[in-house]
Automatic annotation (TrEMBL):
Positions of the Copper resistance protein D domain: 47-148
Entry keyword Transmembrane helix: yes
InterPro entries listed in its UniProt record: Cu-R_CopD_dom
Highest taxon of source: Bacteria
Species for this entry: Viridibacterium curvum
Residues passing through the membrane, by range: 6-28, 48-71, 83-102, 132-150
UniProt keyword annotation of Transmembrane helix present: yes
Keyword terms of this UniProt record: Membrane, Transmembrane, Transmembrane helix
Protein's UniProt name: CopD family protein
Family annotation (Pfam families): CopD
């Protein structure tokens, strides 16, 4: 039962993280870009990303903690975990590091640029965040496919 609880929390956190990236990247960002000019768009995106990153921070911690806990349960309960589980964990760690870079480096740069009305700097920072989120989204989709197909591979 513990494993099932951990797995449920793990999947819910992944839904928040990967689903949130889909929403922000494909729906929110393009819509805001269509409707608003940079002086309005950049502060709005900074605020939206702040709220989103708060949720993702929790989700990343939950994903990492539950992932490690599930691996430990598998290791103590039987044979070595399948290779695909190690691959998923490796990709998850890379994704967490990318998110850490966004959250601790790029996002503060964006907020500072917005607060000082340095719109070109803010736009460049938002562009870097977008590219890093796109990379993390691709890694998240890849990891999900590995999770779904791993036993078959």
């Amino acid at each position: 039962m513990l494993y099932d609880i951990l797995r449920s929390l793990h999947v819910l956190a992944i839904i928040v993280w990967v689903g949130g990236m889909v929403l922000m990247h494909f729906i929110v960002r393009p819509t805001v870009a269509e409707l608003l000019e940079p002086p309005q768009r950049l502060p709005l995106m900074a605020r939206l990303l702040g709220r989103f990153f708060a949720w993702v921070t929790v989700a990343v911690v939950v994903v990492l903690v539950t992932g490690v806990a599930m691996m430990r349960l598998i290791e103590t309960g039987g044979p070595t975990p399948a290779v695909y589980l190690h691959v998923m964990m490796g990709i998850g760690i890379v994704m967490a590091l990318i998110f850490g870079w966004i959250r601790l480096s790029e996002y503060p740069r964006l907020r500072h640029a917005v607060s000082t009305a340095a719109l070109p700097v803010a736009a460049a920072s938002l562009s870097r965040i977008r590219r890093l989120v796109a990379l993390n989204l691709a890694l998240g989709v890849l990891t999900t496919l590995i999770a779904m197909l791993g036993r078959s591979l």
